[in-house]
Amino acid sequence: MKDDKVKIVASGGLIGVLAALLVKFGNPVNMGICVACFFRDIAGGLGLHRAAVVQYLRPEIPGFILGSFGMAKAKGEFKSRGGSSPLLRFILGFFLMVGALVFLGCPLRMILRLANGDLNALVGLFGYVAGIWIGIQFLKQGFTLGKSTKQAAVSGYTMPFVAIALLILLLTAPAFIFFSESGPGSMAAPVVLALGAGLAVGAVLQRTRLCTAGGIRDIMLIKDFHYLWGLIGIFIFALLGNLIFNFETFKIGFEGQPIAHNDHLWNFLGMALAGIAAVLLGGCPLRQSILAGEGDTDATVTIFGLMAGAAFAHNFGLAASPQGVGLNGKVAVVIGLVIVLSIGYGVLKATAEIKAKGGVGANV
């Protein structure tokens, strides 16, 4: 057990240190690693939205996927599987992204923001925990998106192939790919460093299964603190990394934090939406990236939902800005909460009806 604790803390510590280094070498402050933001930037780079300040094919994302893929293949754990309520997963991924972009960051960036003194992230953390608690109530009543089944091998290779294609497009920079000339999208660590960091994180997390939602869920649901140690490792090592490498940007407080706003209600509700969706999906955006590298096509569908959510958020003014959350974003979060909760209740109702009719193991 002691060895397991050391491993999970070390895996979290790796993320924290690499995030601080990526900021040191060019990534936006408090955004050394942000899975939601990076998928948003990729969506912009592909032209799915035209917010000029957030368009870049972030190499960290292909790194996560290919790192997980390589480790899974090496350990004989790559398995092409899926078919577990793909449409619902797409919708949940869509609204997870909406919640994250109203908060301005994924659950991982929430921890990294806090490690650099951004107390707005503490409000987001309270919201995320509340959302996870709500999601757990569905799990306790038997919520499930159904069982995955074995898929054709080519299906499992979808995201690794997409990751390679993104890297090729990044390196060749054809005219139809968009690159920000200002704003967060223009701030990036060297490709080799960013890709290397992504590969390392992907490989390590494929072994440890660390997940921000899973860590908090397991504490509440089964009193298991294993993954919490990994989250603590992220925070502590990111904090140390920022104090060593990025001390000039370290600032404790609510005001004037980079790429953040202090609209507390919507920070809370945005991350609550993300928390509910992550629990119902079985993992946060980072965990979905790792699963996609292992051949899980359900995670791939979730990622497509995340990217669609990012494109929609910026095309229709749902994403927040450092000035706050606009009306469209507030309406989107409320709609998202209604839809995500409706999915939870709908699945529970369908499950109860199937059980009443004597059905077992049905995919709802």
TrEMBL record:
Recorded superkingdom: Bacteria
Matches recorded under InterPro entries: Seleno_YedE, Sulf_transp_TsuA/YedE
Keyword Transmembrane (UniProt): yes
Keywords for this protein: Membrane, Transmembrane, Transmembrane helix
Presence of the UniProt keyword Cell inner membrane in the record: no
Transmembrane segments: 87-112, 118-136, 157-179, 185-205, 226-245, 265-286, 298-319, 331-348
Pfam families: Sulf_transp
Protein name according to UniProt: Uncharacterized protein
Organism whose genome encodes this protein: Anaerovirgula multivorans
